[in-house]
Design a protein that fits this description.
Elements (H helix, E strand, L loop, with lengths): L1 H39 L1 H21 L38 H12 L5 E7 L2 E8 L14 E2 L4 H14 L24 H5 L5 E2 L9 H11 L1 E2 L10 H14 L3 H10 L7 E3 L27 H4 L7 E3 L1 H12 L6 H9 L7 E4 L2 E4 L8 E5 L6 E7 L5 E6 L7 H14 L10
Antiparallel strand pairs: 1-2, 1-12, 3-7, 4-5, 6-7, 8-9, 9-10, 10-11, 11-12
Helix pairs in contact: 3-12, 4-7
Pfam families: Beta-lactamase
Protein name: Beta-lactamase-related domain-containing protein
Keywords: Membrane, Transmembrane, Transmembrane helix
Length: 428
């Protein structure tokens, strides 16, 4: 009996030591795993700790008796949670890909054969072919990649983009009628957002007013907009003035604030903004008259005030490309939204206008191309791009030419971009 008791005690001590040994081994393995995770994923763990700390802080502050809501100035930049990366690489030191150099050579030869002034950005298969300034646009101390231009009527594309985001947020629809916002407009119960985007609403206005403030201009628009009840396409900017006013009414923000919060900050646009006489350091290329003399800027504020939603933005070619490609990549809505806003079949032959752009199909086998154009204070921007924005010609001119040389050149630039690539002898 005594021997049996001793054997039992010995076995028990042995099991205790074995258990302790397994505990030590398990602890060492756990410590090794923790050290490995910290070494391999330091950023993720740091982020996790910060998130946990933030949630605790938020929870604590939300239960505080003295906690009060604070207002936020919507004009201040939003905090970005991540950096947006454009589809196309616009780095200044990026060289033209070897396969695209023949296109660059052709474009440079074509430009040299014309008397043009401005900055041209050509993109082929999401790669920069060239980004050059020429003519009077080279008489500035900054590079082509830093140059901005007034984009005139192409701003209507941006206004349509903001309308699209409101539709995606279910705050609006293409079938919403104008009387929901401004019943004082004649026939507003029959005018839809869609008809305003396509300028088939019948609305028009005479721009004789010289407003001193934006509010004065908006009041004038509401009192003086008339309706022709024609339901046919007529280019009439007041449609987009009213769309901008709808944006302000729905968001309780200024048009400029909503654009900055929705587009400019999320896409990290550094060369995009709204012009005023007081603004400085925007690298705005000065405009020129057709006779070659530099155009004097007007001292009249009304010229810019009444361009609400229609033509008061300065933009660089690069920033324009970034916005269009982001749209096509679904940054501002799904494919259905894009189709309804920009790709929906039109009713005016093979060319029609909607959402700030003209849509064109050369023949049944060709893919769709978009083009936009504007004229304002000596600036004449023209853009052409395909339906996924992988091929783009963005030509911003600082000299309006009444003989249509700028628009003709832009079309021929796009023809060169779309032509088969051929190498001259010696290129490989």
């Amino acid at each position: 009996m005594k021997k049996s008791r001793m054997a039992y005690d010995k076995l028990k001590r042995k099991q205790k030591w074995i258990g302790l040994l397994f505990f030590l081994i398990g602890s060492l393995i756990t410590i090794s795993i923790i050290i490995t995770v910290i070494a391999l994923y330091p950023n993720e763990l740091t982020s996790l700790v910060k998130t946990h700390a933030t949630s605790q802080s938020t929870s604590s502050s939300s239960t505080s008796v003295d906690d009060k809501p604070t207002s936020t100035d919507s004009s201040e930049p939003l905090q970005q949670t991540h950096t947006f990366t454009p589809r196309t690489n616009f780095a200044e030191n990026a060289e033209t890909p070897l396969l695209l150099k023949p296109l660059k050579d052709k474009l440079e030869q074509d430009i040299a054969s014309r008397e043009l002034s401005g900055t041209l950005l050509a993109i082929k298969n999401n790669q920069v072919v060239m980004y050059n300034s020429f003519g009077y646009a080279t008489d500035v101390p900054w590079k082509a990649q830093e140059s901005t231009y007034m984009i005139a009527s192409i701003q209507k594309f941006y206004t349509a983009l903001l309308i699209s985001t409101l539709i995606s947020e279910n705050k609006l629809s293409l079938d919403t009628t104008l009387n929901k916002f401004f019943p004082e407009i004649p026939g507003s119960d029959q005018i839809t957002i869609d008809s305003m985007l396509s300028m088939t609403s019948g609305l028009k206005i005479d721009f004789y007013k010289k407003p001193k403030t934006k509010d004065e201009w908006k009041e004038y628009v509401l009192k003086n907009t008339t309706n022709t009840y024609s339901n046919t396409w007529t280019y009439s900017p007041v449609n987009y003035t009213l769309l901008a006013m709808i944006i302000e009414k729905l968001t309780n923000k200024t048009y400029e604030e909503y654009f900055n919060n929705t587009v400019k900050v999320p896409l990290n646009l550094k060369q995009t903004g709204f012009y005023s006489k007081e603004i400085q350091n925007i690298n705005l290329v000065p405009p020129y008259e057709e006779n070659g003399t530099q155009k004097k800027d007007s001292n009249e504020d009304y010229i810019y005030i009444r361009e609400l939603g229609t033509g008061n933005m300065y933009v660089s070619p690069k920033d324009f490309a970034i916005v269009v490609q982001a749209l096509m990549d679904g940054k501002f809505g799904d494919i259905t939204s894009i189709e309804n806003m920009w790709l929906k079949p039109g009713q005016f032959d093979q060319t029609f206008y909607k959402s700030g752009l003209y849509r064109k199909r050369l023949n049944q086998n060709d893919s769709i191309i978009f083009w936009g154009h504007g004229v304002f204070r000596g600036y004449e921007p023209t853009v052409i791009f395909n339906d996924d924005a992988s091929d783009m010609i963005i030509y911003f001119s600082n000299q309006y030419l009444s003989n249509k040389s700028n628009t003709i050149a832009t079309q021929e630039f796009y023809d060169i971009l779309s032509s088969p690539i051929t190498f001259n002898e010696g290129n490989s």
